[in-house]
What we know:
The complex is a heterodimer. Chain A is an alpha+beta fold. Helices cover 16% and strands 35% of the residues of chain A. Chain B is mostly beta strands. Chain B has a domain of 84 residues: Immunoglobulin-like. The chains are: A alpha+beta, B mainly beta. Strand 5 of chain A pairs antiparallel with strand 3 of chain B.
Amino acid sequence: MWLNWKDLDRHFATLDTLRREMERGVYGQEREPRGRWSEVTLWDEGKSLMLTMDVPGVSADDLTVDVHNGTVTVGAKRRVVAPEGYATHRNERVGFDWHKSVTLPAKVDADRTSAKLHDGVLYVRLDKLPEAQPRRIAIGS
Amino acid sequence: MSNEITPTTGTEQVTDRPIVRPAVDIFENQDELIVMADLPGVLGDDLAVDYDDGKLTILGRRGCPVPDDTKLVSGARAEWDYKRVFSVPDTIDADRIAAEFDMGVLTLHLPRHERTKPRRIAIQTS
Lengths: 141, 126
């Protein structure tokens, strides 16, 4: 063999390092880590749908909730930076800037949607349109 | 790195509630260490920070927001405990550890003992 696999591996590893170095040069230190969105919990309370998502450290100003055409879209962002004058020892909390869309299983009244933020969790109440609400049919005798 | 807070290794507990390790940041300057932990959905009453014999324990109970009699569309009916245990260096003044909880983020301030802070010695010239 002209070249054994180890050599080939090493060449590719070098290329990989080079690519990473170049990307660092292009994007610089400014690049924000993009955390993944948290899991959506959605449940049906009959007359309304309820949706929650974890958004720790996100203020109401950095949250958006849009309802459009049977889809609710939640946007959230936060930055995680070391306080001024402090060194970082451990950095597991990530910054993020995401939008997550959820298709709703029933038609909702966008005007009557309400959202609140409580202890780092977003709660959205989506009232169903009257025709989408469950109803009990009276049985004539 | 003797100053760094280190997670303790050792026995894991078996409980009926799952234990989740919350993401934690640790920052340091000459005066204090700051520990920040993401604990979304933990109510203030269900959050405990204990210091005992050099071990700092963060424990938060997370309940399930989904009522029992409703139909789950996506996600899970889950509840769990957030837990992290750290060894704290003895340069920390445990009596003055302070905690605040805001927007689902716990922030702990661990001040250093006055005697362990670095100081510059004035040099006297004759």
